[in-house]
Amino acid sequence: MPSRYLSFRCSLPWLILLLQALFLIHSFFSFSGGLYSPSSFYPEFQDVNHMVIFGFGFFLMVLRRYGFSSTAFNFLLIVLGVQCCVLVEDLLLLSFLSCSLAKAVVSMTAVVISAGAVLGKANPVQLIVMTLVELILFYVSRCINKTLLQVPEHLTLMHVHLFGAYFGLAVSSRFPEPPPGLDKNRSTPKSDLFSMLGTVFVWVLWPSFNSVLADSKEEAVLNTYLALAVSAVAAFMLSALTSKDGKFRMTHIHSAVLAGGVTVSYTAHSIQHPWIAMILGLLGSGITILGSHCLQRCFNPALKLQDTSGVHFTFGLPAVLGAVAAVVLCVVEKGIAKQWNNLSSLGYLILVDVGAFCQTISTALVTGLITGLILNIKLLKTVHVSKYFDDQFYWEVSF
Where is the Ammonium transporter AmtB-like domain (predicted)? Predict the structure, then answer.
C-alpha cells in the first residue's frame, strides 16, 4: 500500500480502543442510571433499535461486493455512536436537552443515512470520525431549534432525515470520483434482495420510530402506518407507469415505500384526519420516484453529487416535503382554531417553522462540506480510489 495512506491495521483498532476507553471513563463518573432509561415503552425502544441496526444494515446492502462492510460497519457505527450520544448530551447539552437512550438511538439515524451517501467510499476510520462530528453538529442544530426557535424537543429529533441526508450529500461531494471503468458500484439481484429485506424491516418498524418519543402515540402509529401503506401502493403503481416496458423496478420499490414514513415524521402525532396522512404518503412516494429520475440524470452529474444508495430521494426530498406540509398544516390548524389574531402573528409562526427547517438544512450542508474536506486529508485515508466498493480490503472474503 502506498506510504501516503494510513495503515488500516495500525489505525482502526487503536481509534476504537481510545473511544471505548473514553466512553468507559465517562460512564464511571456519569450521572445516576435513571438518566439513561430508554423510555417507559421498552417494546417501542426495541423496535427502533432493531430498525436502525438490522433494518438499515440490510437496507444499505445495495452494492454487489460491499455486503460485509455495509452491515458490519453500520453496526459498529451505531454501538459507538449511541455511547457518543450519551456522552455529548451529558457533557455539552444537558442544560438544553434531556438525555435518554431512546433519543440516542433515534439520533443515530442521521449518521446511518449519511453513511449511505458515502457507501463504499469512506473507510471505517473516516466513518467513525464522521459519526463523532455529525452527532455533535446534530445536537448543536437541535439546541438552536429548541432554544432560539422554541421547537418542541421531540420534533428537533425528527430532523434526523433532513440533517442526515444533506450532511451525507455534502460529505460525499468532497470524495474523489471513482474511475470511469470501475463497475463495482452496481447491484446484483442478490444484493437487491437483501436490500429489500432491510427495506421491509424498516417499513414494519417505522411507526414505532415516529411514535417512540411522541405524546400522542396512538395517532402517530395510525397516521404513520396509513402513510406508509399508501406510499407502498403508490410505489408499485408509479414504478410500472414510469418504466419503459411497464415492469416494476426494484430501485423504485426500495426507495419509495419508505417515503410516507419520512414525510409524516413531523406531523404524525398531530394529524387529526387520517386522509391527510394518506395524501402525504402518496405525495412522498411520487416525489421519491420522480426525484430519482431527475436527480440521477440531471442534477447529480451537474452538481457532482455521489449518492451511492440514493439517500437524497429516499430521505431528503420526502423530508423536505414533510417540512413544508408541517408548516401548512400548522398554519391551517391555528387558523381554524383562531389562535392568531392578525397577520403579524401568523407571519411569525411561519417564520419560526420555516427557520427551523432552513437552519437544519443549511447547517448540514455547510458542516458536511467542511467534514468532507477533513475526511479526505492524508492522515485519514487508508484506501485508494480504485479500491472503492470492495470488501476485500477490509475482510477475508472470496468471490
Answer: 25-379
DSSP alpha helices (H): ranges in the chain? 8-29, 42-50, 56-59, 67-91, 101-117, 124-147, 153-157, 160-172, 189-211, 217-242, 250-256, 259-263, 274-294, 300-303, 311, 317-337, 343-375
Residue 183 domain flag: yes
d(CA 117, CA 309): 6
Higher pLDDT, 322 or 101: 322
What is the residue range of 260's domain?
Answer: 42-382
User: Rounded to an integer, what distance in angstroms lies between the CA atom of residue 185 and that of residue 194?
Assistant: 16
pTM value is: 0.91
The residue whose grid cell reads 425502544 is 45
Asked if 173 and 372 touch (Cβ cutoff 8 Å), the reply is yes
Amino acid of residue 227: A
What is the number of alpha carbons within 13 Å of residue 273 lying toward its C-beta? 6
pLDDT over 60 at 4, yes or no: no
Which tens digits make up the pLDDT trace of 335-361?
A: 665 555 555 666 777 788 888 999 999
In a 3-state reduction of DSSP, which class is residue 16? helix
Does residue 52 fall inside a structural domain? yes
Domain count, the chain: 1
Closest residue by Cα to residue 264 from 330, 354, 326, 353? 326
- For residues 208 and 383, which has the higher predicted lDDT (pLDDT)? 208
